[in-house]
Each structure stands twice: as structure tokens, then as C-alpha cells.
Amino acid sequence: TARNRFMSNEKGLALLSGGLDSTVALAMGCREYELFTALFFDYGQIASAREIKASSEIARRFGIEFECIELRWLGNLSSSYIIGAEAGAGLSQSCGAPDLWVENRNGIFLNVAAAVAVSRGCSVVIAGFNREEAEEFPDNSTEYLEAVNRALDLGERSRVRVESPTVSLDKKEIVREGIDLGVPWELIWSCYRGGDLMCGQCASCLRLRNAVDGTEVEEIIRFKGE
């Protein structure tokens, strides 16, 4: 039966942006838990339409319902280069963490997701953090994950926790996991910009390029101008 496919009888949901980390984390989570919903957050990011398309198609591929939650107020508070068309003009290879940072984004996402999880009888939220980006963005780290779970222990009446099966991995290791799990590489969108193809030049694209270099995925992922 379907129930016997899972290593645990716990129910959960996953955060899904359509990018590498969240897609592989979702695939890894599906081995362990019965995941019902993939949550996407639209906070006014430049690539939101393209990310919604990718996320909804990935969720469908995994047989999981897709839900988009709007948090446009979060984008309105931020000066990040990944939000809004005007800000996006500043995107370049040289953009660092301060240029890309969206204040408390992961904290807001995880707290909203935990509330949704409790309302639906789920005890686990799956997130796609990684060791590589944690060096620049501390809200991708194991320490952050532990802190969030301590807060949720106090803030939720029903027990819900956040897990990230990718948190101890770098991007290349995440790609290898994704290959083993057969994730739909052709659907992934990891670009800060919108458009028909990923730009291949922003920081997120460059991390993806490096991660798939020398693997079979390199022939599947497409960037603009290639």
C-alpha cells in the first residue's frame, strides 16, 4: 500500500521554491514522510511567476498538492535586489549576501508553514537548507534550524518541527542526492530573474552551474544563450 512506502507514519508538508535545494529536500522527505502539500511563498520576488510554474509542476510530478501563499508585504519592506523589477536591475555576479538578503525571510516562511502544518494535522515541515549557502546566509544553518525548533516548541500547542534533509550537504552533494532520487531536473528554476530560461549569470545560477558541472545534469539544465 501507499502507506508502506514511508519509513515513518508522520504526515508533513514541504517548502518548495522550485530551486535545487527545496526540490531535492522534497524528494528526500518523500522517502521518510507522507507529504501532502508543497507550500510556495510569493513575497514579490522578480522570479515569482517562473518559480510558481516550476514549483507547481514539481509538486504535481511528486503527486503532492501545491499551495501558493502571498506575503507581498514582506517584499515591500525589503531593499533586496531579488525583489521588484527596478531592484532587479542591480543583480550581477558580484552581488553578495547584503544585496540579496530579505529580512527574516526564512523565519517568516517557517513560522507560517508551521501554523499551516498544525492546522492540517502535520507534524513535520521540510525545508531545503544547505551547508554551502549557510556560510553567507546563517538562516540556512544547522544552528538556525535548531533555534527555530526551540521556538516552535514554545509557540505551537501541537508538536511540529522543521527538518532539512539537505542541511549538512553542499550543492554538489545535493545534486548527487537528486540524481539518485531521479528529481525532474528539466523543471527546476534556480534563477533570481524571470524569463524563459535561467540567466546563467546571477549568484543563484552560478551556484547551480558549479553544482551540476561534470554530472549528467549538466546536459539537462538550460541557461540563456546556450
What does this 3D model show about the protein?
This protein has 226 residues and is α/β, with parallel strands linked by helices. Helices cover 42% and strands 12% of the residues. It has helices at 20-32, 48-61, 72-77, 85-88, 97-100, 105-119, 131-134, 142-155, 171-181, 203-212; strands at residues 11-15, 34-42, 65-70, 124-126, 161-163. Strands 3-2-1-4-5 form a 5-stranded parallel sheet, sandwiched between helices. Helix 1 (20-32) packs across helix 9 (171-181) and helix 9 packs across helix 10. The longest helix has 15 residues, at 105-119. The mean pLDDT is 90.
Give the structure's gist in a few sentences.
By secondary structure, the protein is α/β, with parallel strands linked by helices. It has helices at 20-32, 48-61, 72-77, 85-88, 97-100, 105-119, 131-134, 142-155, 171-181, 203-212; strands spanning 11-15, 34-42, 65-70, 124-126, 161-163.
DSSP summary: helix tally: 10
Principal-axis shape: globular
Report the major sheet. Answer: 5 strands, parallel
Strand content: 5-15%
Q: Would you report the number of β strands? A: 5
Distance between the termini: 44 Å
Overall mean pLDDT score?
90
Radius of gyration: 17 Å
The helix/strand class is alpha/beta
Give the low-pLDDT segments. none
Q: Level of helix content?
A: 40-55%
Strand ordering within the main sheet: 3-2-1-4-5
H-E order: EHEHEHHHHEHHEHH
How are the elements arranged and paired?
Elements: E1 11-15, H1 20-32, E2 34-42, H2 48-61, E3 65-70, H3 72-77, H4 85-88, H5 97-100, H6 105-119, E4 124-126, H7 131-134, H8 142-155, E5 161-163, H9 171-181, H10 203-212
Parallel strand pairs: 1-2, 1-4, 2-3, 4-5
